[in-house]
């Protein structure tokens, strides 16, 4: 009996210690899942284009050096460089291929601080790579209109061993597993190990769903094939995009066109039936979504477009950028982030959630037109109180006179950039939080602390900052808050740097430098240990008290028999 009780006590002590420690880490080490991070994987694109390169931008708000390391899949370091917070780094794609030694599988990109990693070319469309912690298990590819002889290549990669992937909704013409063999057929289930890739090709991109039992990443390429090769293909690459995970779909979208955009087509896809209210500066109408279908809408002359959906949707944009000097018309594709995924950061007297720096090297910001602000108020289907969205066109002189558009609400913001000399437009950074469709009619403690749930049933998700203010104008305070802010002991950089340096990868570097992880603030560590120790003593005390009661009861029930000689 005593042995069983002690085992039971030991088990509960271990369980509560683990539970409390995990809870403390979750609070004190709160991580915002976003398009910037510390670990990335770039799969082999079977692409020979020499003008492709990685554009790496530090997003850390701390004034510190950033160590970048690129490794092969066997963990060998083939490239390393250190830049400061105000620098950007360009690494040539063909140089990485030369350093691969014939092993065309992909590259690990590891950073000591948070960075954004873009895959660019000298001209034309580009994409942002998602960090490994932002990958998911379910993805949706929309139906996209095919132009002339376009082909589509879908690259799926795993970050865990023995990952089973299911593909449904599209019959692909060519399937290549692990970049070693190609075949044609109706195969729909595949198994990949860590950093292995699956390549799917089709001439007709219809809606397709990808699901897996482990985290995967997905990229899409639109191209004309010029020449097929053994190691890589020479492609007329038109667009390349990273597909966001399905759990990050939202209900509210806003986009304002740049003057350099000749047109705008939106492909709207949902995972269930629903309605979408569409508003522009010219018209207002509603479209119905049906399961397993994509609705395409053209906006040739509208200045801005807003979408309000009854259920979470994905919005894929296709546009043409006009390079004024050469009169080139360049196709661009990108996914529009929902308002729920705008960047949020809070600064109060007690804690700070630092804003990431997406515009490193900015010398100045000036409005190109004082009247360039657009005001719009989102509201739900009942036209109840919504939230304001504003946008402004500003100049960014140090990036070859490129144009920046800032879109913001009362608690979040996002940047879009239009590179007028290279013909591309893209969002600079976004959150990728898992948004849940549940609605909580009763306000939860602290507004949910960024739980991705509509905690006040107003059609918005985590729209309030933790600031004891009525951010969304519904007379309630902090009832549906975004992510919890974390105490820090490092002074944030509040001004943009004035100088931007660019570095390009040398032809060969093979220096192994260990990654230097940032440390948790001392206060958070002490608090975590204190809470954990208190929890252990509390649990031990409870079970000692229960055992004492059990012994007293046992003594009372013991019968004393008289001695008989």
Automatic annotation (TrEMBL):
<keyword id="KW-0812">Transmembrane</keyword>
<protein>
    <recommendedName>
        <fullName>IgGFc-binding protein N-terminal domain-containing protein</fullName>
    </recommendedName>
</protein>
<feature type="transmembrane region" description="Helical">
    <location>
        <begin position="522"/>
        <end position="546"/>
    </location>
</feature>
<keyword id="KW-1133">Transmembrane helix</keyword>
<feature type="domain" description="IgGFc-binding protein N-terminal">
    <location>
        <begin position="125"/>
        <end position="343"/>
    </location>
</feature>
<dbReference type="Pfam" id="PF17517">
    <property type="entry name" value="IgGFc_binding"/>
</dbReference>
<dbReference type="InterPro" id="IPR035234">
    <property type="entry name" value="IgGFc-bd_N"/>
</dbReference>
<keyword id="KW-0472">Membrane</keyword>
């Amino acid at each position: 009996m005593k042995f069983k009780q002690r085992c039971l006590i030991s088990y509960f002590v271990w369980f509560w210690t683990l539970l409390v420690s995990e809870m403390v880490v979750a609070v004190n080490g709160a991580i915002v899942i976003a398009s910037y991070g510390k670990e990335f994987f770039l799969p082999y694109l079977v692409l020979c284009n020499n003008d492709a390169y990685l554009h790496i931008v530090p997003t850390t708000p701390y004034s510190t050096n950033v160590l970048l390391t690129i490794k092969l899949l066997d963990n060998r370091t083939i490239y390393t460089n250190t830049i400061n917070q105000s620098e950007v780094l360009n690494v040539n794609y063909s140089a990485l291929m030369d350093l691969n030694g014939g092993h065309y599988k992909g590259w690990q990109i590891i950073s000591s601080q948070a960075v954004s990693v873009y895959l660019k070319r000298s001209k034309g469309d580009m994409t942002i790579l998602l960090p490994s912690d932002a990958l998911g298990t379910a993805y949706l590819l929309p139906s996209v209109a095919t132009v002339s002889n376009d082909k589509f290549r879908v690259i799926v990669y795993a970050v865990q061993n023995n990952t089973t992937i299911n593909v449904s909704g599209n019959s692909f013409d060519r399937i290549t597993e692990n970049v070693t063999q190609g075949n044609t057929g109706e195969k729909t289930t595949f198994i990949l190990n860590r950093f292995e890739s699956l390549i799917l090709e089709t001439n007709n991109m219809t809606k397709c769903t990808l699901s897996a039992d482990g985290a995967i990443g997905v990229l899409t390429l639109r191209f004309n094939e010029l020449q097929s090769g053994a190691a890589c293909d020479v492609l007329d690459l038109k667009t390349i995009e990273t597909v966001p995970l399905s759990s990050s779909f939202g209900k509210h979208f806003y986009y304002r066109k740049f003057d350099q955009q000749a047109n705008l087509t939106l492909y709207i896809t949902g995972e269930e039936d629903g309605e979408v209210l569409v508003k522009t500066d010219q018209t207002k109408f509603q479209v119905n979504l049906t399961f397993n279908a994509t609705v395409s809408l053209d906006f040739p002359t509208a200045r801005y477009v807003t979408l309000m959906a009854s259920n979470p949707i994905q919005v894929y944009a296709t546009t043409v950028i006009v390079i004024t000097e050469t009169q080139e018309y360049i196709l661009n594709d990108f996914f529009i982030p929902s308002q729920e995924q705008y960047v949020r950061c809070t600064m109060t007297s007690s804690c700070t959630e630092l804003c990431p720096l997406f515009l490193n090297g900015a010398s100045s910001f000036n409005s190109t037109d004082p009247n360039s602000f657009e005001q719009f108020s989102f509201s739900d289907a009942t036209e109840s109180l919504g939230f304001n969205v504003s946008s402004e066109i500003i100049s960014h002189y140090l990036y070859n006179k490129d144009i920046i558009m800032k879109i913001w609400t009362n608690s979040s913001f996002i940047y879009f950039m239009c590179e007028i000399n290279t013909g591309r437009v893209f969002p600079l950074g976004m959150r990728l939080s898992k948004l849940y469709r549940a609605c909580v009619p009763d306000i939860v403690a602290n507004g949910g602390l960024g739980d991705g749930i509509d905690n006040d049933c107003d059609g918005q998700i985590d729209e309030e900052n933790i600031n004891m203010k009525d951010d969304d104008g519904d007379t309630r305070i902090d009832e549906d808050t975004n992510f919890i802010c974390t105490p820090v002991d490092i002074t944030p950089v509040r001004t943009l740097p004035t100088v931007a340096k660019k570095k390009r990868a040398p032809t060969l570097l093979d220096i192994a430098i260990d990654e230097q992880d940032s440390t948790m603030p001392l206060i958070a560590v002490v608090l975590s240990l204190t809470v954990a120790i208190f929890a252990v003593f509390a649990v031990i005390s409870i079970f000692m008290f229960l055992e004492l009661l059990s012994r007293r009861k046992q003594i009372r029930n013991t019968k004393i028999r008289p001695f008989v000689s």
